[in-house]
From TrEMBL:
PANTHER family: SLR1515 PROTEIN, TEICHURONIC ACID BIOSYNTHESIS PROTEIN TUAE. GO terms for cellular component: membrane. It is a multi-pass membrane protein. Keywords: Membrane, Transmembrane, Transmembrane helix. Residues 236-386 form the O-antigen ligase-related domain. This is Polymerase. It comes from the Bacteria. It is found in: Membrane. It comes from Nostoc piscinale CENA21. InterPro entries: Inorganic_carbon_transpt, O-antigen_ligase-rel_domated, WaaL-like. The chain crosses the membrane at residues 41-60, 96-116, 122-144, 151-169, 205-223, 230-246, 252-269, 281-301, 379-400, 412-435, 441-457. The lineage of its organism: Bacteria, Bacillati, Cyanobacteriota, Cyanophyceae, Nostocales.
Length: 475
């Protein structure tokens, strides 16, 4: 059974041996290596790449999607330059992981879906956008292998998210014009301010801040010194408060899933040092306490109670009713093209959806990650996407176990990435913000963080043996 799981998750894939004999690698990698050796600029290639990546996360909340697209093109161009100028012999830290292979497979399925799309031109435009996101992942996975650059990029994002959250809290205290009907007009909360900061939409803001909450939580354990830890704690409080004040139900669900996952993984990390009693009961006690606080908030805080109960109001709530009507149309779209879908992106969706939509229920997407993937690339693409998620989390757990045994504090960033991905999946199950560049770039950053830790399974085993063998450790 263990062998089957390793094959399914590509854990024992001999990537190093394959890359050593790959004709494509020999023909492409290293073409510009001699030039790189004499280039002063490319000697700092990974640092320059980290600066380009940081620029995306610095500007994402404040600029248009067009400018983000230009920065993505710059990142892709620089990734191509670095790849072509790499050394032909693979380094100790592999550039290709099983996660890369699944990302490549998903891209290939999207290409086929575009070729067979009933609206090929629209699908082709969004295939280009998807390609930019996936190559951003490739560049991030490469750069984040350096613990110093990994910490730098995460820290940049956390400081920008703090600025975004502070402005969101200012909107709560001083008021902000609601740019759309974000709450059922008949609800007692119809006049409640839902903060949206610089992003213009409370649901989008919630999706953007969720990684900030989790990463700032684990930063408390990574950053050294009381001043830095106090800053991380401040970030946790401010980001969490701002996310809650978006009154995004999907954001609340995602936040709950992300926080519970982070706590469970943190307890797992510390369990080696805990006494037997706390090793057994710490997780139930902490999770039970958090759920108890949530129940008290639902009982005694009226806005929270009304917003939570509206989740279960089915079609009695206008937002629920809207999504239900969109989903009914989406199910029909999937039924008509179940294998390979209509092609990637909202442009293709906007061309096909009007043929199925209910009167007065227009939509830009399927309001669900899984449904959107099924619409765009069919059940073939959905199966590949789910496979990618399984491989990603399996890889994360294997590397987390390795880092836990060695006590490497960089493992906390891995915990943050895992918890964030689960939270974003939970939020994206009932919302559409996952496909917006402000959030999608963060998703691929989290996947890249996990990929950056990957080591072959046999290398993990040898490292674990060395760490447990004093003679090997000192030799």
């Amino acid at each position: 059974m263990n062998l089957v799981w390793q094959r399914l998750t590509l854990s024992d894939l001999p990537l190093k041996e394959y890359l050593a004999t790959s004709y494509l690698r020999r023909c492409s990698i290293g073409l510009l290596n001699s030039w790189r050796q004499s280039s002063i600029l490319l000697q700092w290639g990974d640092v320059i790449a980290a600066a380009l990546i940081s620029l995306i996360y610095v500007l994402a909340p404040f600029v248009s999607s067009t400018l983000i697209g230009v920065l993505l093109i710059a990142c892709v161009g620089f990734w191509l330059l670095l790849t072509l100028s790499d050394e032909r012999v693979p380094a100790n830290a592999p550039l290709v992981t099983p996660i890369h292979l699944l990302v490549l497979l998903y891209w290939g399925i999207a290409v086929v879906a575009t070729a067979l799309s009933p609206v090929k031109k629209a699908a082709l435009n969004d295939l280009v956008t998807l390609t930019l996101y996936l190559l951003l992942f490739a560049l991030c996975a490469r750069v984040l292998r350096s613990p110093r650059l990994r910490s730098w990029i995460i820290t940049v994002y956390l400081h920008i998210s703090l600025i975004v959250s502070v402005y969101g809290l200012r909107q709560w205290f001083f008021g902000a014009a609601q740019l759309a009907t974000w709450v059922d007009p008949e609800s007692p909360l119809s006049k409640t301010t839902r903060v949206y900061s610089y992003l213009g939409n409370p649901n989008l803001l919630a999706g953007y801040l969720m990684p900030a909450v989790v990463l700032s939580l684990v930063a408390i354990f990574v950053w050294q010194g009381w001043v830095k830890k106090a800053l991380a704690l401040t970030m946790v409080v401010v980001n969490t408060a701002c996310l809650i004040l978006t009154f995004s139900r999907g954001g609340w669900i995602g936040l709950l899933v992300a926080i519970l996952t982070a706590i469970a993984l943190l307890i797992y990390w510390q369990s080696l040092q805990l006494p037997p009693f706390w090793r057994t009961w710490s997780l139930p006690i902490i999770l039970g306490g958090l759920l108890g606080l949530l129940v008290l908030a639902v009982i005694f805080v009226e806005p929270v109670r009304l917003r939570v109960l509206s989740i279960f109001a089915d079609r009695q709530d206008s937002s629920n009713n809207y999504r239900r009507n969109v989903w009914d149309a989406v199910f029909e779209m999937i039924r008509d093209r179940p294998i390979i879908g209509i092609g990637p992106g909202h442009n293709a969706f906007n061309k096909v959806y009007p043929l199925y939509q209910r009167p007065r229920y227009s939509a830009l997407s399927a309001y669900s990650i899984l449904l959107e993937v099924a619409v765009e690339t069919g059940f073939v693409g959905l199966a590949c996407f789910l496979w990618l998620i399984v491989v990603t989390f399996n890889s994360a757990f294997i590397q987390l176990r390795r880092l836990r045994e060695t006590g490497n504090v960089q493992g906390f960033w891995l915990i943050g990435a895992c918890a964030t991905l689960l939270g974003m999946l939970a939020h994206g199950t009932v919302d559409t913000i996952w496909f917006r560049p402000e959030v999608n770039t963060l998703w691929w950053l989290m996947v890249a963080i996990i990929a950056s830790y990957w080591r072959p399974l046999h290398q993990n085993s040898s490292q674990a043996m060395n760490s447990s063998n004093p003679e090997s450790a000192t030799s």
